[in-house]
């Protein structure tokens, strides 16, 4: 069945995709490339959101274990 509007959806999808012809011809692409490579990659940005969380979690777990096994409260009945 022919499209009565004459609009080709495949052209729209190609134009809307980030890998379209315009995205390949973007004159600013090389200036923006540093934002997504190396230390600024998506993984590295999310890895450094909470810098001391791992050390703090281990220290807190160690303190909880120390308190549970070595600091007994004698006043409870």
Write the layout of secondary structure elements.
Layout: H1 9-16, H2 21-24, H3 29-32, H4 42-47, H5 53-70
Membrane topology: Single-pass membrane protein
Family: Belongs to the complex I NDUFB3 subunit family.
Subcellular location: Mitochondrion inner membrane
Helix/strand-derived category reads mainly alpha
Poorly predicted ranges: none
Average pLDDT? 76
Strand coverage percent: under 5%
**Assembly annotation:** single chain
Protein name: NADH-ubiquinone oxidoreductase B12 subunit, putative
InterPro entries: NDUFB3
Main location: mitochondrion
Pfam families: NDUF_B12 (PF08122)
Please provide a written account of the structure:
The protein is mainly α and 77 residues long. The protein has a domain at 51-76. Helix content is 52%, strand content 0%. It has helices at residues 9-16, 21-24, 29-32, 42-47, 53-70. The chain is elongated and about 85 Å long. The termini are far apart.
What labels would you give this structure?
77 residues; mainly alpha; 52% helix; 0% strand
Summary?
The protein is an all-alpha fold.
């Amino acid at each position: 069945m022919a499209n009565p509007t004459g609009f080709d959806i495949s052209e729209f999808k190609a134009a809307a995709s980030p890998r379209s012809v315009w995205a390949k011809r973007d004159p600013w692409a090389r200036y923006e490339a540093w934002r997504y490579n190396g230390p600024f990659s998506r993984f590295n940005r999310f890895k450094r959101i909470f810098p001391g969380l791992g050390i703090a979690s281990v220290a807190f777990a160690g303190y909880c274990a120390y308190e549970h096994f070595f600091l007994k409260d004698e006043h409870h009945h």
